[in-house]
Amino acid sequence: MELLFEFGILALLLASGASLGYAMGLRGAVLVPAGLAISAVVRVLSYSLLEIFGQAQLAFLTWLILSIAALSYGLLRFARERQYLIWLGVGALSALIGPLVTRGLGLRGIPHSDSLWILTLSDLMQRAGDLEIVGGRTAIKRGFSFPMLLSLGPQGEFLTGLIVVIFIALCFAIFWAVSQLAPKLNQRQWLWILLPVFLVLLTAPIVWRAVLYVNGHTLTAIGVTLASAAVAISVRDEVISRQNLLLIALGLALISTTRPEGVAFATLIAAPLISRKWISRWDVRLIAGSALMSFGIWMYVYDGYIPNLIRLYDERFPVAMLIGSFLVGLKIFDWFRFRLVPLAFIGMGALLVFVFGTNAAALADDAWAQLQNMFLGAGFWGTFFVGLIPTLIAIGRKGLSTGYQTMLSIAVLMAVGSVVAKLMDGGLFGDPTLGRTGWTDSLNRMWLHVFGIFLVTAIVGLAERTRQLERIVQ
Amino acid sequence: MFRVWFAIIALLVSAAAGLALYPKEDLFVAGSPHYSTAELALEEHWIKGAAPILAANFDEVSIVNLNKDVEDSFVFDIALSEIYQITTDYTDAPVDLRDLALANSIEPFVFERSEIFCNTPGQKYCELLLAWDEDSSGSFTAVRFTDDLYGIVADNVLIRLGVMP
C-alpha cells in the first residue's frame, strides 16, 4: 500500500512539475529534472507561506491541490502533443523505479548520522510542527527543500523512493546539458567518449552510494547542473531565452534552499552570465532574486541563526534579500559586476593563500586528508579525479566554444568555492579545518554537487576536440 | 589529435587502475524494511536516537534530570526534544544509582542501547539505555547506572526496581 502511495506522490511530483515546465516552453529530457525542481519550489513556497500564517497543517493538502491543478492544466492543454505524453510517461516510470527499489527490493542508503538528522526535520515538517524551533546551526546544515520533499511520505514515514528519483533526474539533467552544449557526432565517436567516462565513474562508489544515500547532495547537483548548463548556453548564444532564464532561476532557488552555502554557490554559477554587458538589468535582478529570496524565505521560516547573527531579525532578512536583488542590477555596481568572474577567482584565491599561509601547520594534515579522499580512494571517489583532471588539462581551452569555456569556469569556481565554504564552516579566522579522511567528510561529499558539471565539461570538451579532429581529417 | 587520444587513454588507464586496485565498497544496505526515523535510529543505534524512539512509542513523553551542564551527565539534544515535542526538565543531573548496582536488574526492561556523548571527566562517549515496560506511561527519569552507563528509564520501572517510592 505504501509503495503505491509513494508511486502516486512521486508521479504527481514529476508530472505536475513537468506540466508547468512544458507550459513555460521546456522540451525534451530537461523536463524530468526541471519538473522535479519546479515541484520542489512549489512545495517549499506553499509550505512556507502557510507556515508563516500558522496554517502549516494544510500544507500537504495545498500541495496536493496545486499539483493536481498543474497536471490537469497540462493534460487539458497538451494531451494531444506526443512529446508531452512521452515525458509524462518517462516521469511515471522514474516514479515507479524509486519505491520499487526502496520498498519493493528493501534497499536503503548506507547509514550516516546526517541522514537521520535530515529525517528528523522531515518528521517535523510532516507533523506541521513549528519550524522556528530549528534555527540552530545543526538544523540549517541539513537543508530545507530536501527534508520538505521527504516529508511527503506516508504518515510517520518518509518518501523513500524520492532519493532514487532525484538521482534519475540528475542523470537526465546531465544528458540534457551534454545534448545542448556538445556538437553533433556519430555513434562511434560518442562511444569512444562516453565509454571511458562511464568506466571512470564506475570506480567511484560514492556516486553509486548517492543513488540511495539520504542527503541533499544530489538535489543540489540537479540545481547546479541545470543552472550551470543554462548559463553556459546563454553565454554561448549571447541571449537568454525565457526557458534558460527559468532553468537558471529554478536551479539557483533549488541550490539556495538545499544547502546553507548554496546561496554563495549560486553567485559563482551565475557570475559568468550576470557579468556580461548585454544582459538586461532586470534579468540580473531576477537571477539574483531567485537565489537570495529563496534563501531569505528559508531563513525566515526557520528563524535561522544567520539573520540573527547579523541582526536582521524576522522579516527584515527576506526584505534585505529582496532589496539586495534589486541593488545588484544598479549601474553603480557595473564595474564590479562586469569583472565578477576574475574578482571571484582573485578573492577566493587570496583568501585561500591567507588562510593556508597563516595556518599552514594546522591545515597540512587536513589538506593531505582531502588529497587522499580525492585521489587515493579514501573518499570513495575511485579514480574519478585522477582520470578527469589530466583529461581536462589535455582538452585545454584554446579554440573551444564559449559554452565549454563557461562550463569549465563554473566547474573550477565551484571547486574552489567548495574548499572556501568548508574552511568557513570550520571557522575561517578562528580554527579553520578542511576535514578528515573518509567518504563521510563533508567536503568530500560536497564534490557530489559538482561531479555532474565536471562530467558535462569533460564530455563536451572531448566532443568538441573530436569534432575539430574530424574537420582536420576532412 | 594528440589531445583527444591522451584524454581517452588517461581515462581508460585510470578506470582500469581504479577497478583493479580499489576494494569494492558496499553501495547500499539490503533487506531493511524500515522507513521511519525511529525504526532507522533503532536499527543504527543512533547516538541521538533517544528522542525519535521515545516519541514513536509513547503519545506523550516527559523526561526529568537531564541537566547536561554538569560533570557526570550526558547530552540529550535540545533541538531533537523540541522536534519530537518531548517535555524536558534540565534542572537536575541524572540520578546517581551507581551504589545500587542495577545494571543487571534493568536488562529485562531495556529497549535500546546506544552510544551517547557524555561529560564524564576524561571520557567523551558513554552508553545510554532506554528502558520501559508495557505499563509505562511516558514519564521518564534520567539515571546513571555505572561510571559509563546512563539510562532514560520509565518511572514505573524505577518504582518496580525500588528506586522510586
What do these coordinates show?
- The complex is a heterodimer of chains A (474) and B (165).
- Chain A is built from 22 helices and no strands.
- Chain A is mainly α and 474 residues long.
- Chain A has one domain (2-333).
- In chain A, α2 (31-52) runs antiparallel to α3, α8 (162-181) packs parallel to α22 and α13 runs antiparallel to α21 (402-425).
- Chain B has helices at 2-21, 37-44, 50-57, 78-83, 155-160; strands at 62-64, 87-88, 95-96, 110-117, 125-131, 139-146, 149-154.
- In chain B, 38% of the residues are buried.
Task: List the main descriptive attributes of the protein structure presented here.
heterodimer; A: 474 residues; mainly alpha; globular; B: 165 residues; alpha/beta; seven-stranded mixed β-sheet
Residue runs with pLDDT of under 50 for 5 or more positions of chain A: none
Chain pair with largest interface: A-B, 65 and 49 residues
Mean pLDDT of chain A: 93
Shape, per Cα inertia axes of chain B? elongated
Q: Measured on Cα atoms, how large is the radius of gyration of chain A?
A: 21 Å
Number of helices of chain B: 5
N-to-C series of helices and strands of chain A: HHHHHHHHHHHHHHHHHHHHHH
| Percentage of residues in helical conformation of chain A | over 70%
Strand content of chain B is 15-25%
Largest sheet of chain A: none
Low-confidence stretches of chain B: none
Shape annotation of chain A: globular
What structural class results from the helix and strand content of chain B?
Answer: alpha/beta
Give the proportion of residues in helices of chain B. Answer: 25-40%
Instruction: Give the overall pLDDT of chain B as a whole number.
Output: 91
List the total number of helices of chain A: 22
> What proportion of the residues of chain A form beta strands (DSSP E)?
under 5%
Distance between the termini of chain B: 87 Å
Compressed to H and E, one letter per element, the order of chain B equals HHHEHEEEEEEH
Total number of β-strand segments of chain B?
A: 7
